[in-house]
Amino acid sequence: MSHKLLILAQNENKYRALIEEARLSNLEIVDSSADNVDIALGEPSLIKAALASLPDLKWAQSIWAGIEPLLGPASHRNYILTNARGVFGRLMSEYVIGYILAHERGILQKLEAQKNKTWDDSDTGTLRGKTIGLLGVGSIGAEVARTAKFFGMTVRGYTWSSETSKDVDKYYHEKDLLAFASDLDYLVNILPNTKDTRKIVNAELLGALPSHALFTNVGRGAAVDESALIEALNQNRIAGAVLDVYQQEPLPKEHPFWETKNLLMTFHTAAPSLPEDIVKLFIENYKLFSDGKPLKYQVNFEKGY
Question: Could you say which of 19, 154, 187, 254 has the lowest number of CB atoms within 10 Å?
């Protein structure tokens, strides 16, 4: 049986070249005007915009981990949706550990001393012996945990049920959230956006952290009560925060985050979707799809992940 693939991504040409190079049997890459498209590969927002014109769609492969645009109540759900997993762990780990190291070793402070021609020979810290808490220990969290253990850190994991990472020293679930946060040196959110995770990082959770703790968000912006975080930072209740995701993106110029002290921002760039990685995942799933076998990383529309 032949299949027709529509690629819906900004760098469509790169994806097309990589897939054509793979020479997958019975697969034709088509443009948006083609009929009988049964496979789509691309950004969730672009897939959503095209759904009404894809009546024969059987499978959509997201190039992102997050698939929120396809989860709305008005969205069609008569197809298999798979997202990108297992490809962002190392990228996220580099980002998280990079900023934690910068904080622990005072890199920005030393740079400021250099600019001011000030000889700052004060001691800096070490990650060894520090405790990191991971909100979410899926494939990305497991990779962060593995890297943290390499640096000699103690790792706590907060999950709904899964306890698959051997690099987590202790797991916490549901009602144990505040106990999980107690005495952490670093808190990292990696949770997806679901009804259970929205504003999980609230005033109560931030209040359970020690004042020297650093919070990093590489999960979803909806997980954070932004007003509570701004207050915690402005009142020095925590040492700082690193944010890569926000409730509204792009972040409006009038948003108070731009001027909040002890806050470092990046712009949803912690783990880019690299075509080379995504196409490997697509090829693996295409072979399963062609053989009528269950696909990897299927999304449960009700759960949202």
Answer: 254
